[in-house]
Design a protein that fits this description.
single chain; about 350 residues; alpha+beta; 2,3-Dihydroxybiphenyl 1,2-Dioxygenase, domain 1; ten-stranded mixed beta sheet; eight-stranded mixed beta sheet; 18 strands; about 30% strand; binds 3,3-dihydroxy-4-oxocyclohexa-1,5-diene-1-sulfonic acid; binds fe (ii) ion
Length: about 350
């Protein structure tokens, strides 16, 4: 902890992913997902969703090894970038101040290796570009409106929660058990369910980046589009309705295996007394409200993250119980209505 006040974070703002085949990634993110190309270079794409007016919310950069190179938060003013620098220098983590343009379209920024091992950037100034909210002539049937959240894998969820609480984030929901083990936590700065989800597991790894649509029909269109492209294998999990967040969801894997969630219909969390929702890890509606099982890859796989030199981070193993180990008997395979003995397999699901 430090006596230096934290920067005033507004929201999650952009991610930078390393992809091994930029053309293949372009098909997935632009031709399929419909993200808008703000700028294009031989080895990089700067993409945004239709309601976004900052230069980008996703950077795809050609590289040898697929990885997450950066998770960026926007702060409320240029002065808050200075405060971020002071806060993290006081925390004693690696801090770099970069000039405007270090990332195309982004102003002066502070980059850190955060206490959880993630490459994180704080910025305020960014180039404004056309906001395409009402350019319905450009929206496809699967139009994506904005970046919604990051989900990261980290071994010690309570420690990660404490770090983010120090940064001014608030818990909206979590998954825990009767012994007090916390398996995952959702935390926000913008008044929705989360800007960051902390998923218990070997980390640091990036679990997914999520974009929001306005309508469930847009998510269903993306599934149909993948079918038409004969690429339904890019659908990892869903479509479905989450228990946590109540959002309608779809998880896709991009050509490099990076997980992208398309998400809609979560809820407002902006009042100071917003109630925290706590889920029992043995409630098999927690991750899918309809009780459908979470596919094993969703628990097991996540993207490598890089340090500020671009070197992949070594992983620290989770030492507490792992959700996939404690819920296989409840993840769509049994019912957990209070007082009822767990049943066998949920109809239609077999291990
Ligand atoms: O955004 C999310 C909201 C809810 C869930 S969960 O699978 O319902 O826990 C996962 C998630 O973190 O991707
Ligand atoms: Fe998510």
């Amino acid at each position: 902890m430090t006596s230096v006040p934290p920067p005033d974070v507004i929201r999650c703002a952009y991610a930078e992913l390393v992809v091994t085949d930029l053309a293949a990634a372009r098909w997935f993110y632009v031709d399929l997902l419909g993200l808008v190309v703000t700028a294009e270079e031989p080895d990089a794409l700067y993409l945004r969703a239709f309601e976004e007016y900052l230069h980008h919310s996703l950077v795809l950069r050609q590289g040898e090894t697929a990885a997450c190179a950066r998770l960026a938060y926007r702060v409320r003013s240029a002065a808050e970038v200075d405060r971020a620098e002071a806060y993290y220098r006081a925390l004693g983590v690696r801090v770099e101040r970069v000039p405007a343009g270090a990332t195309r379209g982004i102003g002066e920024a502070v980059r850190i290796e955060d206490p959880l091992g993630f490459p994180v950037e704080f910025f305020f100034d960014a180039e404004h570009v056309e906001r395409l909210t009402q350019r319905y002539d450009l929206h496809g049937a699967g139009a994506i409106s904005r970046l919604d959240h990051f989900n990261v894998v980290t071994p010690d969820v309570p420690a990660a929660q404490r770090y983010y609480e120090g940064l001014g984030f608030t818990v909206s929901e979590d998954i825990e058990d009767a012994a007090g083990t916390v398996y995952a936590t959702w935390m926000y700065r913008k008044p929705t369910v989360h800007d960051i989800a902390l998923t218990g597991g070997d980390g640091p790894r990036m679990h997914h980046i999520a974009f929001a649509t306005h309508e469930r029909s847009q998510i269903l269109h993306l599934c149909d589009h993948l079918g038409a492209a004969r690429r339904p294998d890019m659908i990892e999990r869903g479509p479905g309705r989450h228990g946590v967040s109540n959002a309608f969801y779809l998880y896709l894997r991009d050509p490099d295996g990076h997980r992208i969630e398309i998400y809609t219909h979560d809820y407002y969390t902006g009042d100071p007394d917003n109630p925290v929702v706590r889920w029992d890890v043995h409630d098999n509606q927690r991750r899918d409200w309809w009780g459908n099982p979470v596919v094993p890859s969703w628990y097991a796989e996540a993207s490598t993250v890089l340090d500020l030199d671009g070197t992949p981070r070594a992983l620290q193993e989770r030492t507490e119980a792992r959700e996939a180990d404690v819920t296989i008997g409840a993840d769509g395979f049994s019912y957990t209505r209070a007082g009822e003995a767990p049943r066998e397999f949920k109809l239609g699901n077999q291990v």
